[in-house]
Design goal:
By secondary structure, the chain is α+β, with helices and mostly antiparallel strands. Helices cover 22% and strands 37% of the residues. The chain has six helices and eleven strands. The chain is globular and about 50 Å long.
Length: 240
């Protein structure tokens, strides 16, 4: 699971850019692709018994909707801040900055305590100023001077598979949901709505380092499966 095991105050180094490809697929394509992947790939060990986990992400944007506009306008290099947690477990909350450069992506992450996260969401920012994490300090500066604010909660179910060669990670995401026109975050009970227009639509993401092994390339090849751009953040901002 991406960044799940980062403890509060610990920074995950930026590392390097990884390739990130996205595909919109149908449920029937998902069943066929999943069957193929299971022959050669492993299930992520951090998943629940059914091989999935739930992700919730609180995305930040400024009053001019800079992150949203850059995505809609196809700006090649852009960044987004988000707070992420898994399976509604507030013990492991992650602050992430995701940097995109066309089909390449890189993430910088740091763990947050629940109390820190709740102060941040409430607009109490001064504790961030001298935080041991440089990423928290960076967000502090951008919240103060660029007016970044938490804008939307994005929730979805993820089923991940991994392949050691090339550090390949393939995920299926579905049930993309969002809260409608309200600014309450980190809630025990989330009331949300479906954010995709086509029922049964799923997103397949393929991430890898320098190369995508030929065996994985062959598994992905299927009639009707084409690489497409899709933003969960963009889809969910249609609701607020």
């Amino acid at each position: 699971m991406d960044a799940k095991e980062i403890k509060p105050g610990v920074i995950r180094p930026a590392g390097h850019y990884r390739h990130e490809l996205k595909y919109n697929i149908t449920y029937w394509q998902y069943l066929q692709l999943r069957s193929r992947f299971r022959q050669v790939m492993k299930t992520d060990p951090h998943t629940e018994a059914d091989g999935t986990y739930q992700i919730r992400s609180i995305y930040f944007d400024n009053v001019q909707d800079k992150a949203l506009r850059e995505k809609v306008n196809g700006v090649a290099k852009r960044e987004k801040f988000r707070i992420r947690y898994y399976n509604d477990n507030f013990m492991h909350i992650i602050l992430e900055k995701k940097i995109k450069d066309n089909n390449l992506c890189m993430k910088v992450s740091a763990g947050l305590k629940e109390a820190e996260c709740r102060m941040l969401l409430a607009g109490n920012l001064e504790w961030m100023r001298n935080h041991p994490s440089s990423l928290v300090q960076e967000l502090y500066g951008k919240m103060k001077y660029q007016q970044l604010r938490p804008r939307v909660l994005v929730s979805y179910t993820r089923e991940p598979y991994i392949y050691a060669a090339g550090n390949v990670r393939i995920t299926f995401d579905w049930n993309v949901r969002t809260t409608m026109y309200h600014q309450k975050f980190l809630e025990e009970k989330v009331y949300d709505v479906e954010a995709v227009q086509c029922p049964g639509e799923m997103i397949m993401e393929v991430k890898y380092d320098a190369f995508l092994p030929r065996v994985i390339q062959d598994l992905i090849q299927m009639d009707g499966v084409r690489q497409q751009s899709f933003s969960k953040y963009g889809a969910c901002r249609n609701y607020g």
